[in-house]
């Protein structure tokens, strides 16, 4: 059964750093893209960063160079290094993995979410 295990969340002060990691297991097909989304209180879920198997990275505008996404393809792992964190980075962060199966049909899986709180 497919599962995305997230780790690394917690409390950090403004200007501080935090690293999130997510490891995928039990997925039958090759993972094309792994990504991080977040949902802040009262807001919709939004993309933070994504990276394809070809290591093409994509970032939301609000990242402003503060975050770095990386992947370990062999380990089915994606990490998000977050620096110079702001109060508005407070959210539940979700790991996402998606791709297409051998029939060309899109599939995706989500982690359960991990809380990140930026507070002084």
SSE blueprint and pairings:
Blueprint: E1 3-7, E2 10-12, E3 18-25, E4 33-39, E5 46-52, E6 57-59, E7 67-72, E8 77-82, E9 91-100, E10 106-110, E11 114-118
Parallel strand pairs: 2-11
Antiparallel strand pairs: 1-3, 3-8, 4-5, 4-9, 5-6, 7-8, 9-10, 9-11
What's the Cα radius of gyration?
14 Å
Fraction of residues in H or I helices? under 10%
Spans of 5+ residues with little confidence (pLDDT < 50)? Answer: none
Strand content: over 45%
Structural class: mainly beta
User: What's the SSE pattern?
Assistant: EEEEEEEEEEE
Q: What shape does the CA trace take?
A: elongated
Taking the alpha carbons of the first and last residues, their distance comes to 40 Å
Number of helix segments? 0
Total beta strand runs: 11
The largest sheet is:
7 strands, mixed
Overall pLDDT confidence: 96
Relevant terms:
120 residues, mainly beta, seven-stranded mixed β-sheet, four-stranded antiparallel β-sheet, 11 strands, elongated
């Amino acid at each position: 059964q497919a599962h995305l295990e997230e780790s690394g969340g917690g409390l950090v002060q403004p200007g501080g750093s935090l690293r999130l990691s997510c490891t995928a297991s039990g997925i039958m097909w090759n993972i094309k893209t792994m990504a991080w989304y977040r949902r802040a209180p009262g807001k919709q879920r939004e993309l933070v960063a994504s990276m394809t198997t070809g290591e093409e990275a994509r970032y939301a505008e609000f990242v402003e160079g503060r975050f770095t996404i990386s992947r370990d393809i062999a380990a089915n792992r994606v990490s998000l290094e977050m620096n110079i964190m702001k109060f508005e980075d407070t959210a539940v962060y979700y790991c996402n993995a998606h791709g297409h199966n051998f029939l060309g049909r899109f599939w995706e899986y989500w982690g359960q979410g991990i809380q990140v709180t930026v507070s002084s």
